[in-house]
Design a protein that fits this description.
Blueprint: H1 2-16, E1 30-34, E2 41-43, E3 48-51, H2 64-77, H3 86-107, E4 115-116, E5 131-132, H4 155-158, H5 161-172, E6 174-177, E7 183-186, H6 191-205, H7 212-218
Parallel strand pairs: 1-3
Antiparallel strand pairs: 2-3, 4-5, 6-7
Helix pairs in contact: 1-2, 2-3, 3-5, 3-6, 5-6
């Protein structure tokens, strides 16, 4: 948890001059060993809290992309303040996935993937990663606005796949036809520039009730 917090702090400071999640040097407190068999982690508005997993399917939820994800919720609270419901909530979750994955790629490029949570899956169990930014549909997340899995189940997590897939394409490039019949061809611009666009969108343009349309326009 401390390693992930260090690397997350360094990422935002070194790339964007952001001094901790509030821009004013806030102390990042990380609490571990929360509850029993707790397969989750969260930012509660003042601190980070991490469960130990269940010891069968999941190990402690302190992999670098999960720590980066949770601390980015704090960054979001102190910037766009995206309300945690509907489209703004899905954007909130997506920005956390975006920067959690980016921090992972920058720190462990040889082993990094576009999965969120794959590092805590225990071999031999039945656990699976939480999300796949390169193929959101794999875990019932939408990759197209109004397409397959749109508003399915846990909206803030599942609809987050729309912007997650945007970020994946923006970074790496790709082509195909989306769920509503639109063809696309994207030339990837690389991780550094993609992250800069995402950060400026979150920190300068978006507001608490922003929608996917807003995120698209300002990006």
């Amino acid at each position: 948890a401390h390693f992930g917090a260090e690397r997350t702090y360094d990422f935002f400071f070194d790339n964007f001059g952001l001094n901790s999640y509030d821009g004013a040097g806030a102390i990042i407190n990380s609490f571990v060993h929360y509850d029993n068999n707790y397969v989750n982690a969260f930012w509660d508005g003042t601190q980070m809290t991490y469960g130990d997993g269940d010891s069968f399917n999941y190990s402690p939820l302190t992999s670098i992309e999960i720590v980066g994800h949770e601390i980015t919720h704090a960054v979001t609270m102190h910037s766009a303040g995206l309300a945690y419901a509907y489209e703004s909530g899905a954007l909130n979750e997506s920005f956390s996935d975006i920067f959690g994955a980016t921090i992972r790629f920058l720190n462990t490029p040889s082993t990094a993937t576009w999965y969120i949570g794959d590092q805590i899956v225990i071999a031999g169990g039945t656990g699976i990663p939480f999300r796949n930014m390169s193929d959101p549909n794999q875990f019932s997340c939408a990759d197209t606005y109004g397409g397959r899995f749109w508003n399915y189940g846990d909206i803030v997590h599942f609809d987050s796949g729309v912007q997650n897939f945007w970020y994946y394409l923006l970074t790496t490039g790709g082509s195909g036809t989306n769920d509503i019949g639109n063809s696309y061809t994207v030339s990837g611009i690389g991780l550094d520039d993609a992250a800069a666009i995402a950060f400026r969108n979150l920190h300068v343009y978006l507001t608490p009730n922003s929608t996917f349309s807003d995120a698209r326009f300002y990006a």
